[in-house]
Structures are given as C-alpha cells and as structure tokens.
Amino acid sequence: MHIDWKKQEIVFKIVYFGPGLGGKTTNLEYIHSKINPALRSELISFKTKQDRTLYFDFLEIGLAPINGKKPRFHLYTIPGQAQYGFGRKLVIGGVDVIVFVADSQKARMKENVDSLYDLEEKLRLHHRSLANTPWLMQYNKRDLPHIAGIDALQDRLNSMRVPFIEAVATEGIGVFDTLKQAIRLALLQTDQKKS
Amino acid sequence: MVLEEQFSGGRMVFSENTYQKISRILFELNTRLKSTVCIFADMNGYAIDYNGDTKNMNINSFTAVAAGNFSASNEMSRHISGEANFQHVFLEGTEKNVYMCSVSEDYLMIVVFGRSVSIGFVRLLTHHAVAKLSQYLDGLRASSRQVHHFLDAEFRNKLDIELDRAFRLF
C-alpha cells in the first residue's frame, strides 16, 4: 500500500494469481467492461499470439474521495504459464492482497496445487509468505461439468481456510464479490497493524 | 510525512522535506533536458512523483509497464551473465524515446524525451540526478510503522458503498 499524503491518495496493489487458463484475465476484462470508464484506466495486456498473458495485465480503478482520501486500486494478473515465472516474481512485489483464481475442473487440480506452491516460492523471494500476506481463493468455472466439489477444493487448496468465493468469471458471477473481498482484506490488514 | 511504502528491506517514509527535494530534482532534470516527462517510481511500478507533460498519457499505467520492462531487461541480464546488472535501459522510438535507470535498487528513474535531445545528454544529466536522489534515499530507511488512523471501520463502510456504486453503473 502506498499512502501519498501530498496527493491524498491511497493505492492498493491487488494481484490475481493462479494456473494458466484459470480465468485471471477474464476477471479483469469483466471488471474493465462493467465499471464506469471514468473510474478506470484502459486494460493493459501483454499477450502472446495465442492470447496468453506474457508479462501481466494491468487495470487501475480510482474511486471518489472518501473522507478526503482517494482510494486507487492497481489490479494485476500474472502470467500463468510455467515459462513466464519471472513475470510472476515481478508482479508479486509490493502486493497488498492476492486473489488465487483456481480452476474448479477436477482435471486441473494438479495445476492449481503447483501454482499455489509457485506462489509461496515467489512470495519467499520477497521475504513474505502466504501466512503473512492477505489472500483469498476464487473457485472459478463453477458452471463447467466435471468440477470438483467445494469441500474437495478446500481440502486440497485452502488448508489455511482463507475466504473463498465461487465464480463464473466469463459471466461475471463472483467477480465483483471477489474484488470487494480483496479490498476488505487489504483494509483489515491495515487496521490490524494499528493494534 | 508525505508518502510511505513497504519494501522487503523495511518501510520507507518520505518526509515533506524529502518529497520536496525529489520534486525539485525532477523539475531541474526535466527543465534542463527539455524532456517530455521525468518520472520517479518504485520498482513495483508506482509513480511516486513526476514532472512534465502528461496530457497524452496515463502516468500510472505507463509507469507500471515501464517497471515491467525494466524488470524484464534485468531478467535477460540474468540469463546471459547470471546476475541482474542492467542499470540502464534505452528504448528508441520514431518520435519519443525512453531512458530508464535504477535508483538505489528499489527505485526507478524514467525519462521520456523527443528526438531533439541526445541520449548522451540524457544519460549525463540523469546520472547526476540519480546520484542526488540516491544520497537522499539511503538515509530514509525506517523501521517504525506508521499508523493509518483514517483507514477505520467508517472508511471501510464508505468504501464498500463507493465500490457498489462503481460496479452498478454499467
């Protein structure tokens, strides 16, 4: 989080992490398409010819001042594919909240688990861990056949029992709820630091 | 206290005085170079301060991308030499050029300039500006944690309302 007292701005960095093709970019695309254009930047994407995220996607949301302070949110996605690991390391620096976008399909469980380990590793490079970084889980693609049950996903992916949200990002289901929950976590973390 | 941010090495607190010094350095650099804009940012892509013409650009998006580019260049360096030692990156365009260099590891100076300015001149003056900035920044590491009294329950509730309003609009 950055607090710029000169500009009276509070900037939060929210990173969508998860396996390739899990729906991270779809989350940002939906937010971009549905939010008032006056409140957001253009969605910046670095994509390969195959439409896969190369470095990261970036979207900024700025809200009206609250008690004189302007909240701004920098939303990033990471490249999910294994070969773009440096991009994940870059984006995770200075993160305030992580949204782990898991693919609910049974066949993608291993990719989810691998990505979670990768997240731990990338956080470690910044002297952090999942235990001391606010994060939440989004179980995406709940509309597809052959998906794992929530209990099974929780057992395999969410042993820390962080908040989770079910989503169908292509239809926008759960997308804003996820973002709101992420923002709440960022603020709560700040509040806890005060005490 | 003007700006604070968290780094792996601790929390950095920018005093009013430091902020003014940074602003002055950016102003001097931009004026002497006759550049389009000079941006002082952190390596995470946050624009801390800038001086110049930003009419045709979204400064925050541009800085996020620039930081990504600088980081990618250093990853290239790691591949060819085993360590991240690209201190400068120069991008040449047809109308505008971009010169970037690191400042005290955690920060980045970004200069956007036109064809009438030579890269050698940009490098020279930016080097002087970065040396000044580094001097100020090295003494700023602070372990004390600042208290954000305004981020309380009332703020969170109002933020919830604002978010609902923003998401309902379209």
Mean pLDDT of chain A: 90
Integer tally of domains of chain A: 1
* Overall body shape of chain A: globular
Give the SSE string of chain A.
EEHEEEHEHEHEH
Count up the helices of chain B: 4
Query: How far apart are the first and last residues' alpha carbons of chain A, in Å?
Result: 18 Å
Can you give the helix content of chain B as a percent range?
A: 40-55%
Tell me which oligomeric state these chains represent: heterodimer
Arrangement of strands in the largest sheet of chain B:
4-3-7-6-5
Strand content of chain B: 25-35%
Please summarize the sheet with the most strands of chain B: 5 strands, antiparallel
The structure class of chain A reads: alpha/beta
Based on secondary structure, the structural category of chain B is: alpha+beta
CATH topology of chain A: Rossmann fold
Shape of chain B: globular
Low-confidence stretches of chain B: none
Number of strands of chain A: 8
List the SSEs and their pairings.
The complex is a heterodimer of chains A (195) and B (170).
Chain A: E1 2-4, E2 9-17, H1 24-34, E3 44-47, E4 53-62, E5 70-77, H2 85-92, E6 97-103, H3 109-125, E7 135-140, H4 150-157, E8 164-166, H5 175-194
Chain B: E1 3-7, E2 10-14, H1 16-33, E3 37-42, E4 47-52, H2 59-81, E5 88-91, E6 96-103, E7 107-114, H3 119-138, E8 141-142, H4 153-168
Antiparallel strand pairs in B: 1-2, 2-8, 3-4, 3-7, 5-6, 6-7
Helix pairs in contact in B: 1-3
Short characterization:
The complex is a heterodimer of chains A (195) and B (170). By secondary structure, chain A is an alpha/beta fold.
